[in-house]
From TrEMBL:
Provenance organism: Janibacter indicus
GO molecular function, one term: NADH dehydrogenase activity
Membrane topology: Multi-pass membrane protein
Protein name in the entry: NADH dehydrogenase subunit L
Transmembrane segments: 6-26, 33-54, 87-107, 119-136, 142-161, 182-203, 209-228, 249-267, 279-300, 307-325, 331-355, 376-396, 416-438, 458-484, 504-526, 608-626
Location within or outside the cell: Endomembrane system; Membrane
Domain NADH:quinone oxidoreductase/Mrp antiporter transmembrane span(s) in chain numbering: 136-422
Lineage, opening ranks: Bacteria, Bacillati, Actinomycetota, Actinomycetes, Micrococcales
InterPro entries: NADHpl_OxRdtase_5_subgr, ND/Mrp_TM, NU5C-like, Proton_antipo_N
Signal peptide positions (record): none
Biological process according to GO: ATP synthesis coupled electron transport; electron transport coupled proton transport
Domain NADH-Ubiquinone oxidoreductase (complex I) chain 5 N-terminal: 70-120
Subcellular location, principal: membrane
Length: 627
């Protein structure tokens, strides 16, 4: 069966990264093309596996492929293997297809960069690591891909590390992710202590025999890991700074790889969260906070890429909220993840196209009127904009509206709090994404004299057009023609339809109304109105949003400065206590005695004679006293 060759999914891009990194300058001429071809090769393998799975009965679509005996340690025996099932294949197709399009786009975007061979090696490493993460059959092997994604993101965010600010941004992302990694490591430790295994199938089977407190602890620690990787509250501060990397990196991180990993981890661990209601509630709360947080921050960003980064944070918040809703929301979280991968990748590549035509500028206050000179970029970006707004029949309408509907399902206060949060978030999203679209492509031209906007080459615009088609049609296909919820049933189980607390037509109408209000408001202010080239000071909330709601300052107050103070205190105790009173005090005493004894060795014979005479007299006096 073709599934036996699923290991090629990881092996092909990993081979590309190895050849380009070890081959050095010898691969400069053909390395980028080789990396792109191997990424497409991985997609073709994934497509073949997917087609073979379509021909099988739903209950026979999961395949475990054992690769080798990895960690034989007494009673604990972890094998390295792949789990090819509907959930992992949904990610495989997204990663390889969107990732390969980004490779093609990078051929044009990085054409004149002297280090493009190294860049493509890192892209291949990124894709290979993410594929290993979603195909792993155990938490331990998932963690290998998890760390590989972290390494690749650090290398790519800091690709232009000759700029100290970019190197700092890469380090910030790396450190924030390491905090989340502690949660995943501790979760695996508890699994080993409780279940004696970290294999997905074995853990899922043993969940019923564990206590709720233990499962809650595991769930909360898994959530911590997901927050770090998916930039969710309170570990979200790195995502905006990650825009320091080349724009194709931003598209890859935000659409198909890194930030989706946390959502995958939660959904893959659904048996644990279903048995730990408190941990599940924590997932919903984190998602709700983050979707509002990202939306508010996005309203005040003038940097085009950072506005899109805030949008990603918010949209991943929607996915986390859905994943925390339990069986009613798992499939919708993955549905929105897949559609978001297309329209967000398209908009990031569109941002790169704007930068390409505007001399690498990112300040939207210096744009305006680009629709007349960059028509392909305008149309393709516009389709992504309509998709994220949730305008029917574009992709976001089918996926994000399902999350809003699911958030209104339940009893008591939860559907009202989480449902209204999701609904209000849709209105804010419409405002800040429309603000971005109108400030960039409409209104008066605010270009500087040294800028000559122009359309990007075909290597960049063709991937944008393909992603734009996905932004327009993919949601409709996955909702009606080939329902993704049905595809995921063998993994996530069948869920009966639950009626929300408000009728579905009322929810759909309310969502469209708040979206329309947000978009019209943005048009009045930024499309038709005059946009100053220098941002006004604004209200206190605006200033806070520009500063990411002071998350860096909060982190410094709660984490950085207490750590620095503790370190300085320990150093002071070591220097003044251990070294001062202990080792230092003894050394000073010996030095004082030595200095006193040294005064007797002055080199004068008369002094020595007097000392000898004194000694003889003292000796004779002692004898006289004794006798």
């Amino acid at each position: 069966m073709i599934t036996e060759y699923a290991w090629l999914l990881v092996a092909l891009p990993l081979l590309g990264a190895t050849l380009l990194l070890l081959g050095g300058r010898l691969t400069d001429s053909f390395g980028p093309l080789l990396a792109t071809a191997l990424s497409w090769g991985s997609f073709l393998v994934g497509a073949a596996v997917f087609v073979s799975m379509l021909g099988a009965d739903p209950e026979e679509r999961a395949h475990s492929i054992e690769l080798w005996d990895w960690v034989p340690a007494g009673s604990i025996d972890v094998t390295a293997g792949l789990l090819v099932d509907p959930l992992s294949m949904a990610f495989v197709l997204l990663i390889t297809f969107v990732g390969s399009l980004i490779h093609v786009y990078s051929l044009g975007y990085m054409e004149h960069d002297p280090d493009k061979r190294r860049f493509f090696a890192y892209l291949n490493l990124f894709v290979a690591s993410m594929l290993l993460l979603v195909l792993a059959d155990s938490y331990l092997l998932l963690f290998v891909g998890w760390e590989g994604v972290g390494l690749a993101s650090w290398l790519l965010i800091g690709f232009w590390n000759h700029n100290p600010a970019y190197a700092t941004a890469a380090n910030k992302a790396f450190i924030a992710n390491r905090i989340g990694d502690v949660g995943l490591i501790l979760a695996m430790s508890i699994m080993l202590a409780t279940f004696g295994t970290v294999d997905f199938a074995a853990v899922d089977a043993a969940v019923g025999g564990a206590g709720e407190g233990t499962l809650t602890a595991i769930g909360l620690l898994l959530l911590l890991g997901a927050c770090g990787k998916s930039a969710q509250f309170p570990l979200q501060s790195w995502l905006g700074d990650a825009m320091a990397g080349p724009t194709p990196v931003s598209a890859l991180i935000h659409a198909a790889t890194m930030v989706t990993a946390g959502v995958y981890l939660v959904v893959r661990s659904h048996h644990i969260f279903d048995a730990a209601p408190d941990a599940q509630l924590a997932v919903v709360i984190v998602g709700a906070i983050t979707l509002v947080y990202g939306a508010i921050v996005g309203c005040a960003k003038d940097d085009m890429k950072k506005a899109l980064a805030a949008s990603t944070m918010s949209q991943i918040g929607y996915m986390m909220l859905a994943a925390g809703l339990g069986p009613v929301g798992y499939a919708f979280a993955i549905f929105h993840l897949v559609t978001h991968g297309f329209f967000k990748a398209g908009m990031f590549l569109g941002a790169g196209s704007v930068m390409h035509g505007m001399g690498d500028q990112v300040d939207m206050r210096r744009f305006g009127g680009l629709s007349t000179v960059m028509k392909i970029t305008w149309v393709t970006f516009g389709l992504g904009w309509l998709a994220i707004l949730g305008v029917p029949p574009f992709a976001g309408f089918w996926s994000k509206d399902k999350i809003i509907e699911a958030a209104f399902v339940g009893e008591g206060w939860r559907p009202w709090v989480f449902g209204l949060t999701a609904l209000i978030g849709a209105g804010i999203t419409a405002f800040y994404m429309s603000r971005l679209f109108f400030m960039t492509f409409h209104g008066k031209r605010r270009w500087t004299d040294d800028v000559h906007p122009h359309e990007s080459p075909l290597t960049m615009t063709i991937p944008m057009m393909v992603l734009a088609v996905g932004s327009a049609l993919l949601g409709l296909v996955l909702a009606t023609v080939a329902p993704i919820t049905t595809w995921l049933e063998p993994v996530l189980g069948h869920v009966e339809h639950h009626e929300p607390v408000l009728p579905v037509p009322v929810l759909m109408g309310s969502t469209l109304v708040v979206v329309a209000v947000g978009a019209v408001w943005a048009w009045l202010v930024y499309g038709r109105g005059e946009v100053p080239q220098v941002a006004p000071e604004g209200s206190a909330l605006t200033r806070a949003a520009r500063a990411d709601l002071y998350q860096d300052e909060l982190n410094a107050t709660l984490l950085q400065w207490p750590g620095i103070s503790l370190t300085r205190g320990l150093v002071s105790a070591d220097v003044e206590g251990v070294d001062g009173a202990g080792v230092g005090g003894l050394s000073r005493s010996i030095e004082s005695i030595s200095s006193w004894l040294r005064t007797a060795q002055n080199g004068y014979a008369r002094s020595y004679a007097l000392t000898m005479l004194t000694g003889v007299v003292a000796f004779l006096a002692a004898l006289w006293v004794i006798n």
